[in-house]
Design a protein that fits this description.
heterodimer, A: mainly alpha, Rna Polymerase Sigma Factor, Chain: A, Arc Repressor Mutant, subunit A, 0% strand, B: mainly alpha, 8% strand, rod-shaped
């Protein structure tokens, strides 16, 4: 069965159908939200909240649009709200105490240095320099591979704004990578 | 040939002008070709993040999340149901409390203050209120008021209310 069939069943009170939707989409939503928040455990809370909210608003879901986009919009908005509610002190504390990079070394070129988990670890270290909107746009577009139009729909802005967020995010990350993680750059870049 | 095209495409990928279909190819090649990766990261270090994994999460974590979401949905549904059911019988209980309190006050002040108050006043409301529980018992020991609602055994979502201060609810 596809999403729409399960949604229809869930609207008719079939909780098992909704559970199937949760199973299908929670992993991907969690990965996205965890990257935006730079916090794995907090991301699961947001995912649960997003699915609960989606259930409560299921009657308002328009089947002409993708369920994934609708769900990601709910989840991303919750994550952005959470980021905004964090105080700068909490953020500073978090950056100083958590997400220590496991593998930081020298020698090999960037091509072999960064495995998948390390990419996430580096982002967790650097994401603090981005605004909530820049983080969300960059994660959805560059890391999750969504199309610009989808990202715009998720964030509730125009495609031009999405491109601008990504441009600004890239600029900030480029600067921070060169400054704080030169070991992930090619040997010729490290000097 | 692929590597040559890749290197010519780096700029348009970064500028967001590369068409969506080609972006997927670009990202795959970035992951798979070490030489092109090195070249791309030299031009644009932030391309490091285009290599992030998109694998699904751990099955046990997904299962735990699903169980938690469904539990919250059931709890939410139950709370909404109880909220709907609470009002009619609470109004009845409030009316009963008012009548009983009024009676006691009248007996105390008008009929004769020497009479001792009963420590517990019980009111059985078995009247046919739709959706009301089988039994409602109101106790008035001194200043406190307690309202108990006992659910029917046949009710799958067993509901028992303990409202210590009905004034807050009403």
């Amino acid at each position: 069965m596809n999403d729409l069939q399960w949604i229809q069943a869930a609207k008719n009170g079939d909780e098992d159908a909704y559970a199937k939707l949760v199973r299908r989409h929670s992993g991907g939503l969690h990965r996205t939200v965890a990257r935006i928040l730079a916090d794995d455990a907090e991301a699961w809370d947001v995912v649960q909240m997003a699915f609960l909210k989606a259930w409560q608003k299921l009657d308002r879901y328009d089947p002409r649009f993708s369920f994934t986009t609708w769900l990601y919009r709910i989840g991303t908005n919750l994550a952005i709200d959470l980021l905004r509610s964090r105080t700068s002190r909490e953020r500073a504390h978090k950056a100083g105490t958590e997400h220590r990079l496991r593998l930081v070394g020298t020698g090999e070129g960037a091509g072999t240095r960064a495995d998948s988990n390390e990419t996430d670890n580096v982002l967790q270290q650097l994401v603090e320099v981005l605004t909530p909107q820049q983080r969300s746009a960059f994660v959805l577009r560059e890391m999750e591979g969504h199309e610009t139009a989808e990202v715009a729909e998720v964030l509730g802005c125009s495609a031009t704004t999405v491109r601008n967020h990504i441009f600004q995010a890239r600029k900030a990350l480029r600067r921070e990578l060169r400054l704080r993680f030169p070991e992930y750059l090619p040997a010729s870049e490290r000097g | 040939m692929n590597c040559e095209i890749f290197r010519e495409t780096i700029g348009s990928y970064v500028d967001e002008t590369l068409e969506e279909g080609r972006r997927h190819w670009f990202r795959t090649h970035l992951r798979e070709c070490p030489t092109c990766r090195e070249s791309a990261l030299r031009d644009e270090p932030s391309l490091l993040f285009a290599m992030a994994p998109t694998a699904p999460g751990k099955p046990e974590a997904i299962e735990a999340c699903t169980a938690a979401v469904m539990a919250r949905i059931r709890q939410d549904r139950l709370e909404r149901r109880l909220h709907r059911r609470r009002r009619p019988w609470l109004a009845a209980a409030a009316a009963a409390t008012l009548v009983i309190s009024g009676g006691i006050a009248w007996r105390t002040m008008v009929v004769g203050g020497s009479e001792t108050l009963q420590p517990v006043v019980e009111a059985q409301l078995d009247a046919g209120l739709q959706n009301s529980p089988p039994t409602v018992e109101v106790e008035m020991p001194g200043e406190e008021v307690r309202v108990y609602q006992f659910a029917n055994d046949a009710d799958a979502d067993t509901a028992v209310y303990f409202i210590v201060d009905p004034a807050l609810e009403l």
